[in-house]
């Protein structure tokens, strides 16, 4: 099961607004109902593999697992989940299955025939499979038949319901029709049918069928294999897990003939609202997946490729034009059929009842929002155990990493973003953005959701003009920026201005390095380097995706650094203005989730031919696919890091040297060296969790909350005691609180030493030892033995990174008891003299009153006697009532 990252995210929306143009609004509650913690709610997350769904459910019930990051589609297991008091579940609709065909041929290099090079045979496969049988008998009703690359029940499908209904009728199950077409085409290919078996060059035509074993695809694969055998093919059923299948269908050369069909499965990683780029992604070599040899082997009809390109690049000026392109693409895709879609699954996501986990309508649990939101209901902190089908399937690196959903869900938790998408609506939620302004060329089909007005300013303009000083491209040869003025570029479809705020106030990277402008620049430069054959970073598999991105992104410029404000000029538009803002970087985001110095060590390794960022280049150069978390890559990257640290290496120094000094570079590499020494890998980001450990052999990973790093990197602050004056020789109990200065969350169970120095000296005297409680509170006893002015700090024992937890020492004046009491005695003496003087005056007044008092007393005695009598009567009467 693969995850589509970057641009393509399938659309999941409420079905309440299905007409075109789609401009449904959402309520404030819907956008703000997520309890987001940018530093992670729990202390630790442990990922481990468990493919067996029945075993996973049992582990969940026993408490050995808290959340399962794999969907449940078995109706019997679903019944168990519903009946369990320990478990709860939710559903999503973004997982779907299909048949992926190897289109190379018609003959492989090994001389074997590949029937699926023939487009008519691929198209006929739509007639061969009974989708209703798959849904009813295999999926137990947890799904719906699927014929196209959009979900019919959701808005994009509803917009083109007439087209999809027509396709379903035209391509409905018809075994005899499939047999007639395939027989005709096989004979054209030179195959012969002998005793009900197909032969080519006197050998059986063997269909090598990769069948995934972890889910319903095993049964689906067996069903399809049975159907093929009825046609006369010999089927080799190659049962494989994701890890076993990946090197063949994704990484292998299609020409080698190692496989013919693969049971593909896809899960969208977030809800989106525009699927017009699906055709390019799934059917053409212009796809972001073109790092794979399989995608580079696609040769669609040129007309189909052009329609897919226009849709992906949003080259239409009205909904009417978009509708026509979409309709053309649907029918062309059916004719091409390098994929035959089978079923849209209703996915069940299960967790223990004490856990809060946001379920995305498209991707379920393992989506971008999970690390910001997952938590225990009754506490902050704790260890959360997450089961997944696999962990660390393929290498992780900052340029071309594994795109398995099992890997993405883990490593993206260590990456922050400018926006996350709301799991129910697909609209962006800004988490590292102050404000956004979007201007779109008038008459384009872009619509604004009214509830986004708090952070988004949107307007139509007659023309979007690109400033001549905006950066248009990177000059690979001369290592400089080419401006829009130099390139003669003057207009774009949209302008997006993003205010990121003061980046100096943004969280540090996980190795303690602060963010800088250079971190924003590195991605742009690498994109051009990898697409230019003159660069040592050139990667042929990147050229097509780069060209697609280049057609959409125009230019950008940094307007100010404090706060950081960047203008983006783009031709990428989508139906929602909010998503134009989110994907202003040519259909992508520009947020430096990985710092430039982490890229740098990989750049050195690839430039020297020791490793390669992409799987495709690694295979071509016969080197390892660069892995920042395990395997032989680590030793190579460590050597490159040591070399960079020694020299203060700055990649693309001719330009980046304006933003980074050699001293800053050395400081960053020193931080990375310390991080590697402690954690054993180089995956450094800025997300809610940092990757503590990855075991690529056991396929496990441990993440820890970013806030647990704060003390080490000086981001903590201490609420120091209010007492600022102590008495010589007298013990005084002082108390304080240690919290994270960014999140406001306490540091619990933290061991502290209290140190003092007299008159600001550097020799510190240990006063006492203490620990924080669950609320970050601490207390200790101070007994100073000499008068003077003291400075005290709190010290974290054993830390080599940041020994002083309080960044600003506080002065405390220590006095002797007599010095403290003398002013008090003086004040008391003065007060007593005043009282004596006042007392004499009172004596005189009392003598004058005594004469009057005798008369008054006589009257008072009589009055009291009368009052007592009346009071007794009143009490008696009151009780009776």
If you had to describe this structure to a student in words, what would you say it looks like?
This protein has 881 residues and is an alpha+beta fold. The protein contains 26 helices and 38 strands. The strands form 11 sheets. Strands 1, 4, 5, 9, 10, 11 and 12 form a 7-stranded mixed β-sheet that branches. It has a 5-stranded mixed β-sheet with strand order 3-15-2-30-29, with helices on both faces. A hairpin with a 4-residue loop joins strand 21 and strand 22. The N terminus and C terminus are likely disordered.
What is the topological layout?
Blueprint (H helix, E strand, L loop, with lengths): L1 E3 L23 H5 L11 E6 L3 H10 L4 E2 L6 H9 L3 E15 L17 H10 L2 H8 L4 E3 L9 H5 L1 H10 L4 H14 L3 E3 L2 E4 L2 E2 L1 E7 L4 H15 L2 E7 L1 H8 L11 E8 L9 H6 L9 H4 L5 H11 L6 H18 L2 E14 L2 E2 L13 H4 L1 E2 L6 E6 L16 H7 L7 E3 L6 E3 L4 E7 L14 E6 L2 E2 L5 E5 L4 E4 H4 L3 E2 L1 E8 L15 H15 L8 H13 E9 L2 E7 L6 H6 L13 H12 L3 E2 L2 H7 L2 E2 L7 H15 L5 H4 L5 H18 L9 E7 L4 E6 L10 E4 L5 E3 L4 E9 L10 E8 L6 E7 L5 E6 L5 E8 L14 E6 L1 H64 L1
Parallel strand pairs: 1-11, 2-15, 3-15, 9-10, 9-11, 18-19, 27-28, 32-38
Antiparallel strand pairs: 2-30, 4-11, 4-12, 5-12, 6-7, 7-8, 13-14, 16-17, 18-24, 20-23, 21-22, 24-26, 25-26, 29-30, 31-33, 33-36, 34-35, 34-37, 37-38
Helix pairs in contact: 4-8, 13-14, 18-19, 21-23, 23-25
